[in-house]
Amino acid sequence: MKFIWINLFCFLVAYPVFGQLVKTDLTESDYGQWGTLRLGKISKDGKWVALSMIYENGQDTLYLRSTNNTKQFAFPKGIEPAFEGEYFACITEGKVAVMNLADNSTSYDAGVRFNFFTNKAIAIWSRSENKAPNLKVKTLSGQIALEIPDIVEYTITKNILLYNRKLQDSSFVGIVDYRGKKTKNTVIFKKRGELQSLVSNKEGTAVSFLGSDLNEDRLTSIFHYDLVKNKLSSIIPQQSLNVTDTISITTTGIYRHWISNDGKKVFFAIQRKNNYYPKNHTVEIWNSSDKWTHNLEVQLDGWENVSKAAVWMLEEKKASVIGDNILPQARVFGDGKYALLSNPQSYEPQFKEEAARDYYLLDIEAQKRTILFHQLPGAADDIQATLDGKYLIYYDKNSWYAYNLLKDNSRALTATGLSIWESDPNDYNSEPRVYGIAGFSTDNSSVFLYDRFDLWEVGITKSFARRLTDGKEKGIRFRLAVSAGNPGKTDPDPIDIYKQLYLKAYREKDGVSGYYKLKDNKLQKLIFDNSCTDEIVYASEIDIFREQSFDMPTRAIALVKGKRSVLFESNPKIKKYNWPFSKMITYRTMGVEKPAALFLPPNYDANKRYPVIVHIYEDMFPELHHFVNPTWRNPEGYNITTQAADGYCVVLPDLNYESNNAGVSAARSLIDLTKMLVDEGIANPEAIGLMGHSFGGYETFFTITHTNVFAAAIAGSGISDTVNWYYSMSQDLEKPEMWRFEDQQFRMTKPYHLDPKSYLLNSPIFNIYNVNTPLLSYSGKNDRVVPWQQSMTFYLALRRMKKQTTLLLYPDEGHVLNNPNNQKDLSLKVKAWFDHYLKNLPSSGWMDQQY
What we know:
- The chain has twelve helices and 55 strands.
- By secondary structure, it is mainly β.
- Among the domains are: 173 residues, Peptidase/esterase 'gauge' domain (Methylamine Dehydrogenase, Chain H); 260 residues, Alpha/Beta hydrolase fold, catalytic domain (Rossmann fold), CATH 3.40.50.
């Protein structure tokens, strides 16, 4: 197998213009052939970048491209690109390809995983059905340094490779040291039974692994190996923790197996062994005072059976459980010095999305526990520790605070009136959501915070606050940019304000997005055009962005010393098609101006009225600049590009909402929107369709009970009987759905029993007598978010009233359709429905016949 070398001259002139290029219309035969560009890794010197083209048929391609636009190599089905000095590697069609970037020579080895280690070797792991898994260590020049069979697991720390080898009924842990002139392979431990979960600390001085005895069905031992002292230690938690129940070490819960940076503590998780005692299933007992509902309590099976975090302290030669059945949830921080303990049930039963909690601080070494915060609202992740573990940053009562762990005191970081750190509570009538913490400075003396628009630096050890961006004045939302080359990175890096920071920018008024750079306290615009620029990778002297707009497929833009060039264009064949385009429009409703994205057919004629399809959810306007591949494989049955190319004007609006009136205010917004579309000469008033899914399905159900302006409507997985749904259990979350009304989209300020009028006024089923719009509804019969019976309820009511309606139920589908055949079926039926009612085309045989 060989990579594919592409002549860039031919590539760049693939679509020459000899006179006027005659464009063709997009047809159904053109669907499904379009790809999406994703940015990958970039070499440290910025001379090479990996780019991926993703296709719906799975025939993806990874491109390695020189950033000076002279060379490009294609790796079919390539994944996991990586650079190491003058070498590049990836996995392509079941093999690991290693390319010398200097001469472009490439070697291939069978493998499903690889890792560079040191700057001169690569580890390649292969696995197949007919062969034992194999680990091969090669020099980057291609020489085999070492080959070990029967390797079931390996990890790399610093310049050392650790492996787990299984041979018959014995397991081995070994070390491959490649730092000297010769490769050293040393077995450090051997036992009969199983070994697993190889981990190391960040400093590369210690490793740990778990073990079980031969014929034992649970992990019972923990091992620690000091790489500096070459010393092996072990414990058996069943004995060390002094517990009476039979326990096992677990690797499947929320607590992971890891080692502190100093190598002195090993963290792991334990769980009481389930003896599977038969339970009485003759009756379910649901008590109103239960902390959680019956089904959740059954899933929990008591805190005593839930996995717990634990720690082995090597110097103290002891182990302890972190937390207990009273405070079962733990978050360890400060390199294992402290833990934050809480119980999510403390203030249950309650009816918001997240319950408030009490938080306790545990000094892990001293085993001292103190109460920190009483009844603190918001998500547990809103509390963050500085990277050195000396402070806890938290939000309470309109301000950010720092808790000093050494001095046991708190102080306010943000003065009253400095900014607004939380979202507008009127958005959902819920507990405010903070905009969040961006990170901490390199010396942990300051924290970086977000408000609606800007990035702030706020002092922790000293009192100061300074705004680093001017987003409030420009109406631009600034957030720290994350490199597309590190999508899975979870550990936060410190923020060095003295080096350049990349910021992602989004302007709310027109949906434009791009990137800025903050350097020397100055904000510099890098790319911010009338488009969506949503990915970035960067290296020395070069920035690469992914840009797109509705009529421009994703492409890679290179920026070098202020000069911009197109590095890669996906789907260059678009140049031969007549393509729809988008523009921003606004409309007034209830005294407020709201934006909407308008997608227009190719060769749009402003003197002509068009059939219009309105897609709704909540805020749909941000889709204005997104390129949408034309396809039948649409999880919700609609595709903006295919509909606009088919002669429809498509509108995605932001809607205006009122408290206690979500349905009525959404309907009013849509009535005002359609009036504007008619008044501006865009819409044929007799040919306007409405479509929404989930909450948009609810809005569709409700809107057609209040207006006849829509000639046809389509509702997917919608809520029709809000009172029934309010008093129902979520199959997905196993909790009452009341929180969605009192703390989320339905925007109710009171429970049903205190304000039944508002609930009934905004329930589609209780206003159904006004419906005259032909309705197509659909749902998956395995939908665990919105039960399909909600669509059935509305269908049965319309059927009883002898109104025009058709219901589609997909037996094996969930909240959205995942089966490609069902996606195509729904997309075709959506097209047929609107074609019939908005274009007066003949009806399809599956449609309901008119009464």
